[in-house]
Amino acid sequence: MTTIGFAGLGNMGSPMAANLIAAGHDVRVFDLVEDLMTNVSGAHPQTSAAAAAAGVDVFISMLPAGRHVESLYIGDDGILSGMSKSTLIIDCSTIDPQTAQRVAAAAKAHGCQMLDAPVSGGTGGAINGTLTFIVGGDALALERARPVLGAMGANIFHAGASGAGQIAKICNNMLLAIQMAGTAEALALGVSNGLDPAVLSQIMKESSGGNWALNVYNPYPGVMSGVPASRNYQGGFLVDLMIKDLGLAMQTALASRSSVPLGSLANNLFRLHEQTADAGQLDFSSIQKLYLRKK
Amino acid sequence: MTTIGFAGLGNMGSPMAANLIAAGHDVRVFDLVEDLMTNVSGAHPQTSAAAAAAGVDVFISMLPAGRHVESLYIGDDGILSGMSKSTLIIDCSTIDPQTAQRVAAAAKAHGCQMLDAPVSGGTGGAINGTLTFIVGGDALALERARPVLGAMGANIFHAGASGAGQIAKICNNMLLAIQMAGTAEALALGVSNGLDPAVLSQIMKESSGGNWALNVYNPYPGVMSGVPASRNYQGGFLVDLMIKDLGLAMQTALASRSSVPLGSLANNLFRLHEQTADAGQLDFSSIQKLYLRKK
Amino acid sequence: MTTIGFAGLGNMGSPMAANLIAAGHDVRVFDLVEDLMTNVSGAHPQTSAAAAAAGVDVFISMLPAGRHVESLYIGDDGILSGMSKSTLIIDCSTIDPQTAQRVAAAAKAHGCQMLDAPVSGGTGGAINGTLTFIVGGDALALERARPVLGAMGANIFHAGASGAGQIAKICNNMLLAIQMAGTAEALALGVSNGLDPAVLSQIMKESSGGNWALNVYNPYPGVMSGVPASRNYQGGFLVDLMIKDLGLAMQTALASRSSVPLGSLANNLFRLHEQTADAGQLDFSSIQKLYLRKK
Amino acid sequence: MTTIGFAGLGNMGSPMAANLIAAGHDVRVFDLVEDLMTNVSGAHPQTSAAAAAAGVDVFISMLPAGRHVESLYIGDDGILSGMSKSTLIIDCSTIDPQTAQRVAAAAKAHGCQMLDAPVSGGTGGAINGTLTFIVGGDALALERARPVLGAMGANIFHAGASGAGQIAKICNNMLLAIQMAGTAEALALGVSNGLDPAVLSQIMKESSGGNWALNVYNPYPGVMSGVPASRNYQGGFLVDLMIKDLGLAMQTALASRSSVPLGSLANNLFRLHEQTADAGQLDFSSIQKLYLRKK
After folding, report:
1. pTM summary value
2. D-chain residues near A261 (CB < 8 A)
3. Among A170, C169, D149, D209, which residue is least crowded by beta carbons within 10 Å?
4. Beta bridge partners of C3
5. pLDDT averaged over chain D?
6. Alpha-carbon span B100 to B12, nearest angstrom
7. Residues C172-212: pLDDT tens digits?
8. Rg (Cα) of chain B, in Å, rounded?
9. Quick check: helix, strand or coil at residue B58?
10. CB-CB contact of D270 with B269 (8 Å)
11. Beta-carbon neighbour count of residue A163 at 10 Å?
């Protein structure tokens, strides 16, 4: 049994904490919204993040953005300075690599090991314990983390040094946005030229057009059952979250003077979709709607 | 044994004809370049396309562009008018759907069944008999064609009515261009932020970034063996051919008033790549070079 | 006084013919829609295009697309073969350069001089006789045409040989689409960051952001009076017509293997705008709406 | 006579300071590079920025990026805390609006008036005193600044409150990048279809394609004399600086969740141009080279 502190009990954090408890760990939780703490059965609510972090073996954070992570650890009332040097810190938030590196450097200066370990797999993966962790940081620290991460996810990748987890996730999600929109575009082109979207999907899937979006998350309504496209794009991975991740990709590209023409266009297409269809709370495969004629 | 006429013995046509002969068919070939006919061992060279088509069970054409197909069948000296009504016509050329439909309509008026059956799989697939055929036309005609197509390829898809084979291939290859360039872009973004391209490839492949280009045709030099990226982009599917297929996609989108922003950008990126690096005769995964800093 | 035949009395053709009559010419008109002929006061309606073209000094056509022009002159019942060699032919339609060149070559073979002379200036320019003519063809033929063109327009440019008028107009309108959408984008960016669109317009107009769209055709509602943006984008140059011209630009780029990434994106943005807002019959400056948040 | 402190004597700052001296002001200068201070004839070199700012009527800064401005005024050794409340601060640097607003808020809290006043017009405008100032901040503060700005520039625009000068400049330069690249694209399309670039330029200039880039800064070699395109793109406004400004536009768009598809594509085209042709130190109209066939 490991004692684990856990900060951030949103849609992702709550089921992740629940899986840690189910695996037999002692989990001390904190969230600014008090009700979220009592909703996680078997968790030990704390009165502050500092209390949740006090003396634990592992401390995990799952927060919305870089500024929250920075504030939690190294802000004016940051908890890092009070943490035990033996605590392993794992930040599972998806944030900009610069902040991830800055906070990890502060942790190292304090004497703690810290990993950035953003996840993919969405709320479904969080509930079922099948998340993918993409980890940046020291390889030995990752070995320490494996048993804990293994209770929450099915795949663990080591992307490189501090921040590399964030960069790899950003690259992956930018490519995902491109191929989801590209798949929607190819399907719409076929349909407006008389093809059946299911037949075209089948052909491209077994040909060189195959990709994750087409193969397991088809955006065209009615082609695949059990995906958001078949329930009016409810649930899934929200357009607003994809726009957030694309924003991180754009910032990373700007900071490294990288050319990302397709990524930039995908970013703008998702924004136009969000604006013209008020689609922020729909699944991101709803980008298909942008391509379909209204009448 | 089937008697087969075959017109067009280029890089694709020659090995396709050879596989038909190897399967025991009687193959009568024609090409404007005489030497190409004598190079196909076991084939019966003819003095004209009309001679190759005279009285055969099946007639196959494999030509560079729509104007060649139109000219062969329904031009001033077109062979269609002299063909037997019992001959099944299979055009394996990749051409614009409009021409495919026009020629198929003429064949129908004449009394012949005709299929458009563009292929994917490249010269390797043609040599090894593992091509994919994407077929448009009547389902019964496709049943007649299966034994012959099966001698040249491993997969046969029925996309729909006349022209649908061309449309499905166009959609597939537009999506392929998007995901090849998108993959190159994501890899370059990762590398310029310190990631190892092989590690990043591995992570994205097993995550939602997975796609045909990343999974089996990695564009980054040194990541995957046996692909064009590991032999200076020699061989494979040429940039010039991808530009041809993207041109067909753009025409099809214009004709159907479809929005294809990512496909259009991919088209222009391949053109810029061809222009700035004189890359027309390199494999299309060389688009990776457009994204790498010259230093 | 010149005898002039005129085919095509749509929104543009009718006022153009009326200006020729006002300038004292003898104008013989034909349109498939009989009522359109009687609406042009002072014109001499004919029973066919051939009748309108018989023995005139100058014959003018103003038709929707290349296929109409091709059909009129060199189709199955084409009028060219019956025309007098002394008749100067001026096609004012905006069509693809290939068709313009093909028809002009046929005219030359027949012994007639022919000019392609697409116009800009819209219905307002047609009514007021202030059109701009962008002319391709022989310089001496243009000198013959000047007095007639001068009765309908204020500016006459000689772009080059046959087809050059079409190419120059296509280039101009592609650039116009880019700068109209670019202006809309810059204004929306400023407004969403707190700027007054009128103040920002004024600053950019007198700086390096100045362009025709910003300077005389501001797309932001309420900034400039007397433009479509100030009357709910009614009237003006329709989105559908801009999409037609962008289609010609895309075809011209494909045929010449030219890279037009911004033009292609503008083309797709206008299409997305048309699709998502059913905007085909609005003025093209309504592209501004694509950029404005719905709420 | 006004006493003026001036920090930052680069390619822009030096001639600006020189024009203030020529107008009879007492100018106290500071730059980290000592030689730059002695090169400005008539200026009074100081040993620190704080010394240059001590007790002056007006203090002007002209620095490369937001972090320099932030550091100068409110960093660890920031000079703001030691400045007289009667000193008017004018920051002429082109930086991100967020930093501009943050520093201006600190100045206000300290009791000083501060303007953001980025310039356009390049080194030529700086030398000739014909710069354009785009100003954000209080209108009364701008009135105080006018006599000083007037010694360095010809046009002064009031864009709005603090930061508005930066936003307006960013919008303008994003539009400039779009229309420069769009102009290059239209010219290349025309040329590859046989048009003379000078003739096409003339036609578009007097038609709806007219824009600042086309009209006074033609990017096609040989069309216009006295512009960078006619001297191998030496001098002028560097690609690297345009990329910097486009980076600010992209950040501003991300922060305000604005859609800027054409601006994003222009950003990526300038980056691709810089990468593939090592063009960072060429004038930005050299984007024309990206569109011309290498042959």
Report:
1. 0.94
2. 264-265, 268-269, 272
3. D149
4. C26
5. 96
6. 19
7. 999 999 999 999 999 999 999 999 999 999 999 999 999 99
8. 20
9. strand
10. no
11. 27
D139 touches chain A (CB under 8 A): no
> Can you give the pLDDT at residue A170?
98
From chain B, the residues in CB contact with D275 under 8 A are 291-294
Contacts of residue B153, Cβ cutoff 8 Å, sequence gap at least 6? B119, B121, B125, B129, B130, B131, B132, B133
Asked if D166 contacts D95 with a C-beta cutoff of 8 angstroms, the reply is yes
Single-letter code of the amino acid located at B267 = N
Alpha-carbon dihedral of residues C60, C64, C67, C72, nearest 10 degrees?
-30
CA separation, residue C26 to residues C11, C147, C286 (Å): 21, 14, 40
Picking from D278, D293, D294, the nearest residue to B294 by CB comes out as: D278
> What is the rounded CA–CA span in Å between residue D65 and residue B194?
25
Q: How far is CA A274 from CA A149, A186, A282, C220, in A?
A: 34, 20, 9, 21
Token pair 């075809």: residue: C251
For D165, residues 6+ apart whose C-beta sits below 8 A from its C-beta are: D100, D115, D116, D117, D118, D133, D134, D135, D136, D137, D159
- Which structure tokens are listed for D188? 């290349």
Task: List the beta bridge partners of residue C158.
Answer: C135
Cβ of B264 and C269 within 8 Å? no
* Enzyme catalytic residues of D: 169
Q: Angle formed by the axes of helices D164-191 and C261-277, to 10°?
A: 110
For C62, how many CA atoms within 13 A lie in the half-sphere containing its CB?
23
Contact A264 D269 (CB under 8 A): no
**C-beta separation of B26 from B1 below 8 A:** yes
CA distance C286 to chain A (A): 14
Encode burial over D186-211: b for 16+ CB neighbours within 10 A, e otherwise. bbbbbbbbebebebbbbbbbebbbbb
Give the HSE-up count for residue B187: Cα atoms under 13 Å, Cβ half-sphere: 31
Q: What is the pLDDT of residues D41-53, one digit of tens each?
A: 999 999 999 999 9
Task: Tell me whether C250 touches chain D (CB under 8 Å).
Answer: no
d(CA B231, CA B226): 8
Do B176 and A203 make contact, defined as CB atoms within 8 angstroms?
no
Catalytic site positions of B: 169
Q: Which residues of B135-169 are buried (b: 16+ CB within 10 A; e: fewer)?
A: bbbbeebbebbeebbebbbebbbbbbbbbbbbbbb
Q: Is A212 within 8 Å of B209 (Cβ atoms)?
A: yes
Min Cα distance C220 → chain D (Å) is 15
Measured between beta carbons, the chain B residues lying within 8 angstroms of D291 are 275
In terms of Cβ atoms closer than 10 Å to its own Cβ (0-12, 13-18, 19+), residue A206 is middle
**Contacts across the A-B interface (CB distance below 8 Å):** 236
* Phi then psi dihedrals of residue C281, to 5 deg: -100, 10
The residue behind tokens 């005193």 is D129
Does any CB of chain D come closer than 8 Å to the CB of residue B290?
yes
pLDDT (tens digit, 9 = 90+) per residue, A124-177? 899 999 999 999 999 999 999 999 999 999 999 999 999 999 999 999 999 999
Tokens describing residue C127: 């009514």
Q: Read off the DSSP letter of residue B260.
A: -
Q: How far is CA A142 from CA A172, B279, C183, C229, in A?
A: 21, 43, 50, 59
Residues of chain B with pLDDT under 70: 294-295
Would you say C189 and D171 are in contact if contact means Cβ atoms under 8 Å apart? yes
Contacts of C250 in chain B (CB under 8 A): 250, 254
pLDDT tens profile C221-258: 999 999 999 999 998 899 999 999 999 999 999 999 99
Q: What are the structural domains, with CATH classification, of chain B?
A: 3-161 (3.40.50.720), 167-291 (1.10.1040.10)
Tell me whether D127 touches chain A (CB under 8 Å). Answer: no
